[in-house]
C-alpha cells in the first residue's frame, strides 16, 4: 500500500465521515475502523484528527451527538442531520468535478 500525503487526505476526510454517517449512526472508534477497513488501510485516522472534525461538524449542525450506554459503558454516537445530508450532496458534487478534472489533466479520464 502506498503511503498517502496527509495534505491530499485533508479535503476529503469530512466527506468520507459524512458518507459513513449517512448510512448509520456510529461512535468514534467505529468511524475510525470503518474508514480504515473500507479504504484498505489508506484512511487510518487517529482520534486526535477525528474528534476535532466531528466537533466542527456539530457546530455547523451537520451531525448531532448523543450518548448510549451499552454493557455498562457510555458511548457518544454521531448521526448525520438534514443539513449534513445537504452538505454531503454538495461535497459529492464538488468531488465529482474535482476528480473528473484531475483525471482529465492526468490523461486518465479521456478527452477534456
From TrEMBL:
Record Gene3D superfamilies: Winged helix-like DNA-binding domain superfamily/Winged helix DNA-binding domain (1.10.10.10)
Taxonomic lineage: Bacteria, Bacillati, Bacillota, Bacilli, Bacillales
Source species of the chain: Paenibacillus shirakamiensis
GO molecular function annotation: DNA binding
PANTHER family assigned: TRANSCRIPTIONAL REGULATOR YQJI
Keyword DNA-binding among UniProt keywords: yes
Residue ranges of every copy of the Transcription regulator PadR N-terminal domain listed in the record: 17-88
Keywords: DNA-binding
Protein name: DNA-binding PadR family transcriptional regulator
Keyword ATP-binding: no
Domain of life: Bacteria
Amino acid at each position: 500500500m502506498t503511503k498517502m500525503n496527509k495534505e491530499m487526505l485533508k479535503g476529503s476526510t469530512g466527506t468520507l465521515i459524512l458518507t459513513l454517517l449517512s448510512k448509520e449512526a456510529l461512535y468514534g472508534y467505529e468511524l475510525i475502523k470503518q474508514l480504515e477497513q473500507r479504504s484498505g488501510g489508506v484512511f487510518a485516522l487517529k482520534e486526535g484528527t477525528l474528534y476535532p472534525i466531528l466537533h466542527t461538524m456539530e457546530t455547523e449542525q451537520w451531525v448531532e451527538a448523543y450518548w448510549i450506554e451499552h454493557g455498562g459503558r457510555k458511548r457518544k454516537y454521531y448521526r448525520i442531520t438534514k443539513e449534513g445530508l445537504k452538505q454531503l450532496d454538495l461535497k459529492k458534487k464538488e468531488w465529482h468535478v474535482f476528480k473528473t478534472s484531475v483525471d482529465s489533466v492526468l490523461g486518465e479520464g479521456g478527452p477534456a
